[in-house]
Predict the structure.
Amino acid sequence: MAGNIPFCPQGKTITLQTSGSINTSQNRQVKESDFAISTLPSQFRIVNNGTADIWVVFSSTSGPTAAFPTAGTTSVGTPQPGWRLKPGVVEVFTNPAGPSLFIADISSVASQTYDITAGEGT
């Protein structure tokens, strides 16, 4: 993959939804067949369709849970793995999980949806 090519979608786009209970982490496996491709791609294009932040964690195992980091006043607070998806923002991430992909998510608003498109590019 070249770092100077536009994002090129592969397969289908999936939509995931955070828990129907606020501030509740959930974790699910996402397979290449969910995207209608034979191998998980090197990158994902993600857009948060909701009205609130979503915190997501990509992992190669089902163990991790998603938790919002907390700020500290005299320290760094409590950092967490993953990243924040801002509403309406489109981002491209490198697949950090490898051949197995589990996605954990959490939101302060129930049932927030976000789209994930498999592909590669910048």
About this structure: The domain at 17-120 is CATH 2.60.120 (Jelly Rolls). The chain has no helices and eight strands.
